[in-house]
């Protein structure tokens, strides 16, 4: 099978992370995976949602949205109510990031990570998780530099990637043309240490055997390894201080 962009079955799209893309944000990155591009920003505030008050623990919240021109047809802006897909995705991003944050070390602060899709060609949720972590780490690193935190309250990295079955073949990092006709697709979120944080998978056509799931999982692990390395490159010296002082 020849992929639409001539990649090998186990090959990621070109990945590029540009840290500091929005200088006014505490932490930011332009996350690019092929033609999918997401601006991720993070801010740290000395406040908590009501359910977290007086616990001594921090909180990480994520928001996700697609700009009107990010798809082939205009994506309407949510005026009164966010669409269900966006809410589901931002909850995934939030869960994924919270899994690698030491909430006690963060203290009574809230980190909000915003993921704004400026161009969508498949894998926007996984790109948001991966880029969102970079923005989060940069924001927390700045807090250490400013004296607001004693040490970086991160336990590990986190990254995410999509895999799927297209025309019976297992493929890594689906673009939109592949994802739209996949017989099965799966989003995998993992920590830098190899722990599984979340798996979202669906058979779009008919059930597929367990052996195919194992193949997809192995492909996903390979892709996440490449994304973790790209994160480390984007974070520079900060990447060596996960869980430590900058």
- Beta strands, count: 9
What's the alpha carbon Rg, rounded to whole Å? 18 Å
Structural class: alpha+beta
Overall pLDDT score = 94
SSE series: EEEEHHEHEEHEEH
- Spans of at least 5 consecutive residues whose pLDDT stays below 50 are none
Distance between the termini: 47 Å
Helix content: 25-40%
- The proportion of strand residues reads 25-35%
Approximate shape: globular
Strand order of the largest sheet: 1-2-3-5-4
Report the total helices: 5
Quick description:
It is built from 5 helices and 9 strands.
Question: Could you explain the architecture of this structure?
Answer:
The strands form two sheets. A five-stranded mixed beta sheet has the order 1-2-3-5-4. Strands 7-6-8-9 form a four-stranded antiparallel beta sheet, sandwiched between helices. A hairpin with a 4-residue loop joins strand 8 (184-191) and strand 9 (196-203). It has helices spanning 84-98, 103-106, 124-145, 176-179, 210-235, and strands spanning 15-19, 27-33, 36-45, 59-66, 110-119, 158-166, 169-172, 184-191, 196-203. It is built from five helices and nine strands; from the N terminus they run E-E-E-E-H-H-E-H-E-E-H-E-E-H. Helix 1 (84-98) crosses helix 3 and helix 3 (124-145) packs parallel to helix 5. It has 246 residues and is α+β, with helices and mostly antiparallel strands. The protein is globular.
């Amino acid at each position: 099978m020849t992929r639409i962009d001539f990649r090998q079955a186990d090959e990621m799209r070109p990945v590029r992370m540009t840290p500091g893309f929005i200088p006014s944000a505490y932490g930011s990155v332009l996350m690019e995976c092929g033609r999918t591009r997401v601006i991720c920003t993070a801010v740290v505030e000395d406040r908590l949602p009501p359910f977290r008050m007086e616990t001594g623990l921090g909180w990480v919240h994520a928001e996700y949205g697609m700009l009107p021109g990010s798809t082939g047809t205009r994506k309407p802006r949510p005026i009164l109510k966010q669409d269900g897909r966006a809410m589901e995705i931002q909850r995934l991003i939030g869960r994924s990031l919270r899994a690698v944050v030491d909430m006690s070390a963060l203290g009574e602060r809230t980190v909000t990570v915003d993921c704004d899709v400026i161009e969508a060609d498949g894998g926007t949720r996984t790109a948001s998780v991966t880029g969102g972590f970079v923005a989060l780490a940069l924001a927390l690193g700045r807090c250490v530099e400013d004296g607001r935190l004693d040490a970086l309250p991160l336990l590990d990295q986190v990254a995410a990637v999509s895999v799927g079955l297209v025309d019976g073949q297992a493929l890594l990092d689906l673009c939109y043309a592949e994802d739209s006709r996949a017989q099965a697709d799966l989003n995998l979120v993992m920590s830098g240490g190899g722990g599984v944080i979340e798996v979202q998978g669906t058979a779009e056509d008919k059930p597929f055997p367990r052996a195919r799931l194992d193949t997809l999982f192995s492909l996903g692990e390979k892709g996440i390894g490449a994304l973790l390395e790209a994160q480390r490159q984007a974070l520079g010296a900060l990447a060596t201080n996960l869980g430590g002082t900058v």
